[in-house]
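Figure 6 in text form: structure in, sequence out.
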């Protein structure tokens, strides 16, 4: 997977997709804090979720043999701002991984999610993984539709009707 990847949106905004680095911790915290209550609920299961520095640093220190964390950034007057984040964590069977993805509300429908999922799938395949899955709240219809568009199968979770499992053979 060739990263970083830079492109411009239809409105001319510059974006860069790359692996998350330890120095991105504060940017990642600001990203999560900038998400709407609904976006935080759909991603973290709590609308008032607020990551601390220790937890965020754990995400930033994800080793290659544990998984991959990607971010999309855009330049601002104060540096770079995270506008999307996606990661997978390799499961104990070492052949599958669980993914999560979130895009800032103001960046939805600008291709950020598509770039992130394409890159995430590419990284997982390059790492020799055979299956990717994610847990998605049943009420998150937009995300369920999004992953269906990439060929993910949606099934019921053993956790209950409120949770769905999206899975894809790589």
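Output sequence:
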């Amino acid at each position: 997977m060739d990263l970083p990847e830079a492109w411009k949106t239809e409105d001319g905004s510059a974006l860069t997709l790359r692996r998350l680095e330890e120095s991105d911790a504060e940017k990642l915290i600001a990203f999560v804090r900038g998400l709407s209550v609904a976006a935080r609920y759909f991603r973290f299961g709590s609308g008032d979720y607020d990551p601390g520095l220790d937890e965020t640093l754990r995400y930033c220190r994800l080793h290659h043999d544990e998984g991959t964390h990607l971010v999309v950034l855009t330049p601002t007057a104060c540096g770079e701002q995270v506008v999307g984040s996606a990661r997978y964590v390799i499961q104990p069977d070492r052949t599958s991984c669980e993914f999560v993805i979130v895009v800032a509300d103001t960046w939805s429908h600008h291709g950020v999610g598509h770039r992130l999922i394409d890159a995430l799938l590419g990284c997982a395949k390059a790492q020799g993984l055979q299956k990717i899955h994610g847990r998605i709240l049943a009420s998150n219809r937009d995300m369920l539709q999004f992953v269906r568009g990439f060929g993910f199968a949606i099934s019921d979770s053993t956790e209950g009707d409120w949770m769905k499992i999206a899975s894809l053979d790589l």
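Caption detail: The chain has five helices and eight strands.
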